[in-house]
Amino acid sequence: MTETEREQTDEPVLAAENLTHSYGDVAVLDGVTLEIPEGRFTALIGPNGAGKTTLLRLLVGLERPDGGRIRYDGPDRPRRIGYLPQRPAFRPEFTAAETLYFYESLLGVPEPQPRAHLERVGLAAAADRPVGALSGGMRQLLGIAQAVIGDPPVVVLDEPAHGLDPGMRSRIFGAIEELAARGVAVLATTHDLNAVERSGDRIGVLDRGRVVRVGTPAALRDELGVETLTEAYDASVAGAAGTVYVEESGGEQQ
Ligand SMILES: Nc1ncnc2c1ncn2[C@@H]1O[C@H](COP(=O)(O)OP(=O)(O)OP(=O)(O)O)[C@@H](O)[C@H]1O
């Protein structure tokens, strides 16, 4: 698709407004505001334990926030938000095509087209393979195909490229770019900063339950006067690199 065909506006289809969330007395999100515009790939990055998965689960409605709200301003569709969880659970004995057929049936799609969906993510050749016999990367691609069934205006992906080889990772990010190029509002978490720098239209940096930066890769670099996104990331997140932040229950933040 050419750049002119590519629909890019700043209209947020989905927005988190001042979200707070705790697990018991452990505060995980502390006033998170983030807009997910149509036709853009918004990448959510941040250290382990920052609250990325929690934010995604709130946005897709799997958990309720303690405070704040989630605004959906997209078209009314049977499926508004497609979601790829961090560990998608598929039935291993179903084939890839049967798996997608099953999800299409659940959504009441009148003429399921599992093979067309597999083709879109480059998995056509594996249509008749049982899911249990797919590689990790192929399963992630199947997960992305599942997340876009029903043409949801928003697609939310939790670490879609986790644990994949470079070739498979670039296929995954290519599939994400294509989704955004078709006008979908895509939000994905990842630790792959190089891929984000290449493919991300916008970046949100989440640190200790707060969005500490939002902008294009270039804007973040300029704002911080650095050359690479990795440097921008290091300058944005608190704490020692390589240390997982764990909120002390009921205590002071470290
Ligand atoms: N179901 C739960 N019950 C209690 N605590 C939880 C639960 N889920 C997450 N947490 C805690 O919430 C914090 C944020 O976790 P979350 O998975 O949202 O972070 P993340 O940024 O996605 O991390 P990672 O990059 O490691 O996937 C962590 O301290 C985690 O231990």
TrEMBL record:
Domain ABC transporter, by residue range, is 14-233
Q: Does the keyword ATP-binding apply?
A: yes
The record's section on Pfam families has: ABC_tran
A molecular function annotated in GO for this UniProt entry is:
ATP binding
Keyword entries, A-Z: ATP-binding, Nucleotide-binding, Transport
Indicate yes or no for the key word ATP-binding. yes
Q: Which InterPro entries match?
A: AAA+_ATPase (IPR003593), ABC_transporter-like_ATP-bd (IPR003439), ABC_transporter-like_CS (IPR017871), P-loop_NTPase (IPR027417)
Q: Which family does it belong to?
A: Belongs to the ABC transporter superfamily.
Q: Can you say what this protein is called?
A: ABC transporter ATP-binding protein
> Which species is this UniProt entry from?
Halalkaliarchaeum desulfuricum
Q: Provide the organism lineage as a comma list.
A: Archaea, Methanobacteriati, Methanobacteriota, Stenosarchaea group, Halobacteria
